[in-house]
Amino acid sequence: MTAARRPDEQGELGDMKRIRALRRAHHLWWLSVLAMHWTTMVGLAVWTPVPGLLPWAARGMRRLVDRERALAERWSGVTVGAAPAPRTGERERHGVVARYRWLIEDPQRLREWRWVALYSFVAGLVVAVPVGLVGYGLWGVFLACFGWYLSTDAGWDGLWYTAIHVTDVPTGLMAGLLGLVLAQAGVWLAPSMVDRHARFVRTALAPSEQEVMAARIAHLAATRSDAVDTSAAELRRIERDLHDGAQARLVAMGMTLDAAEHRLDKDPEAVRALLAEARASSSAALQELRDLVRGIHPPVLADRGLADAVRSLALLSPLDAEVTVDLPARPEPPVESAVYFAIAETVTNAAKHAEAERLWIDLAHDPERGALRVSVTDDGHGGADPARGSGLAGIERRLATFDGVLAVHSPAGGPTQISMEVPCVLSSPKTTSC
Amino acid sequence: MRVVVAEDHFLLRDGLVRLLGAFGHEVVAAVDNGAALLESLLAERPDVAIVDVRLPPDFADEGLRAALAARREVPALPVLLLSQYVEPLYARELLADGAGAVGYVLKDRVTDGAEFVRTIEQVAAGGTVMDPEVVSKLLARKIRDQRLGSLTAREREVLGLLAQGRSNAGVAESLVVTEKAVAKHIGNIFTKLGLYPGESDNRRVLAVLAYLEG
């Protein structure tokens, strides 16, 4: 986590950029006022038994923290590590001691609390320096114009600007000059203060390595148990399908052939019918095995890889589907398979639930981030929600096994865009690629 | 007919050779991998090749690729692809050159020997045979092509049967209409798809291709 500046802010800083940084410092200063508000609220909530106050204050505090984190990232390129979610729910405790324990039990919440308390003073002052300098500088410029008048005719005796006693025009002009210098210094300081602020946010808010590790372990444990559950369920389904389907048909076929054997001499006509039946059974068994194989691992995916498997999906989809692929090689087979089934599910959803007509599937590999990106967009009526749709939650779990993420953008009235990103390394380009 | 067989599974390869022998066809080469297939196709120039899609060394689509490569060298070399599953994508690639003389059917079809041999003969004669499963899969889908949308339900049915490689007589038989009516339907289909007589490409193949492109 280095405080890397974005490329456009490297090297010589333009005046516009400095002015912008000044505006940002101003914005951050107001946030420090807000932080003071939330410290007060949390303190109040801890000390007074007003129901609902503590969770409300904690939520407000977290909102402010999230905003600060986003600003640090956007303005200074400082990424503040994603804090693990609090383990306990935000419910209220009784008694002052219990409330304090509630506050400090979760390291993330404790950090946030400490941060808002500190921020209202420390960072508030840090970002107030450039703003204050500019403000004071402008006052000096004002004095250059009206200082003489104020100190004499308006009766403001002993008007001081820093070390300058403004009494007449020359001293007024000196104050103006000094004001310009101070304002310039404020503008000049602004960018580094904004960056310093971002670093402060990181220092105060970033979770410790141990916590990140613990959260990572919890995540891995959860996704592993999901993966195990999913594959166990899959094996049960395959076993059941084989048992009730192909296996039963083969037994029936054996019986039919046995019956045919017994009637061979007496009734050749009946044997013909039995043999026809046996052949029909064998076709049906083959058909079932084929469907089963397609459900486990589609042959075209095995043969040609993700790109052609998705093209094949599009070809068979009832929607007018357009596929764009930018994959220089094939991803690892498990990722390929997970992504394929995720896409298949979204395509089915689009046809079944969204009443869409058209579908755009976009597959690309981002070598910089080492990730496979997929977006599936339809022109349906939208309103898809991963919290409700079990299908989308299933996809999310499937991708989580590979540290992948799913994002759903589906406003009511459409369109729906489903984006997936899975970290993956492409194999060396195959000569057989599409 | 002189036939080349490419199939990596020994039992199936042996079965095919015997089946073809029983129907009086000569198997000039029976190979079990993609490279040998391409070599024997170019050397033997068979009347028809029966090719398994999945062949060693990659066990991917070696057979299909060897067949496509051979057809680039020898245009319209008759090829019947056999596969454990049907993939419309492969069907489309196979038909893309518009030369016809191709077939793509499930391996199950070999269980009906007589019908299978008829399929081979159709392909050898320059026909186009798609497995009913490909056709039904594509039928289940909404028709996107404007031209196909203008076809009547009957005409679409006829086109589906054409895709399965039926002759006019065959279509007439399965729809229980006269051959003349079928010819009329086919004429209408060609007109609606913008396929006019006198073009060098096989109009039946182009119609089936339009159907697959959907």
UniProtKB/TrEMBL annotation, chain B:
| Residue(s) carrying 4-aspartylphosphate | D52
Pfam families assigned: GerE (PF00196), Response_reg (PF00072)
Does the entry feature the keyword Transcription, yes or no?
yes
GO MF term set: DNA binding
Source taxon at top rank: Bacteria
Which residue range or ranges hold the Response regulatory domain? 2-122
Cite the SMART domains for this sequence.
HTH_LUXR, REC
Outline the extent of the HTH luxR-type domain: 144-214
What Gene3D superfamilies does its record include? 3.40.50.2300
Give the UniProt keywords, A-Z. DNA-binding, Phosphoprotein, Transcription, Transcription regulation
Cited InterPro entries: CheY-like_superfamily (IPR011006), NreC/VraR/RcsB-like_REC (IPR058245), Sig_transdc_resp-reg_C-effctor (IPR016032), Sig_transdc_resp-reg_receiver (IPR001789), Tscrpt_reg_LuxR_C (IPR000792), WalR-like (IPR039420)
Provide the GO biological process annotations. phosphorelay signal transduction system; regulation of DNA-templated transcription
Q: What is this protein called?
A: Response regulator transcription factor
State the organism's lineage. Answer: Bacteria, Bacillati, Actinomycetota, Actinomycetes, Kitasatosporales
